[in-house]
Task: structure prediction
Amino acid sequence: MGKANGRNLAGLIIILLGVIGLLNNFGITAVSFSYVLNLAWPLLLIAAGINLIMSRSPGNMATGAVMLGLGALFLGRNAGLYSLDTTNFWQIFWPVLIILIGLNILFKNDHNRGGNLAIMGAVDKSKEAWDLKSGDYTALLGGIDLDIRKARFIEKEVTLNLNAVMGGITLVVPDDIAVICKGTAILGGIDLLGRGTGGIVGSSVLEVGGSGTAANVLRLNCICIMGGIEIKH
Result:
C-alpha cells in the first residue's frame, strides 16, 4: 500500500503540472508554472523516498530516508519557508562526482564475486556457481551482473531487491522458473523481460512462468534512479 501511495503521489503531481500548463495556455488561469515546478520536483523526490522506505528493505529504507530528507529540505526552501544557500553544495558535488567517476575508470575495481554492493566498482556472479538467497543488490555508480542460471536456490521462493542509483544491474534468468518483477524508474530505465519502463517516473509489474506450478519463484523489486536495470532470459 505504501509503495502504491508513493506512485500515486508522483502521478498526481505530474498530472497537476500538465493541467496547469494546459489551463495557462488557454488563458483560463495565470499560475506561475515555474513556481509550481519548483514545488513539484521536491515532491517527486519525496514520493520516491516513500516508495523505498515502504519496501521494508534496510538498504532501500536508508536510501529512501535520504531522498525524503532532501526532498523536504528543498520543498521548504522553494516554498519560501526559509532561505537555504545550496551554491557551495552543488559547486562541490558535481566536480567531486566527476573526479570519482574518472578514478573509477582509471583504477577499475576487480570484480567482486561474493558481495551484494557495487560502489564505483562491480559485482560479478555470472562466471561460477553460487548460492541464491533473498537479499539486496545495490549498484551505486557501479555495475552488477547476476546469472541466475548458475545459481542454487537456497529456498523455493527468493526475493531480490535490485537498486540502481546512477549505475547498472543485469540479471539473466532461466526459462524454467517463475519470475515476478516490480519496477519503478526515476530518471532511468528498467527492462523487465522485454517490457521497458522509464522516463521521469515510470513503473511496471510483470509475472511470467506460473508461480503456482514452477519449481522455483524469483521475486524482483527494482528501483532505478538515473541508472538502468535489465532482466532478461
Remarks:
- The chain has four helices and twelve strands.
- Confidence is low (pLDDT under 50) at residues 108-113.
- The longest strand covers residues 178-192.
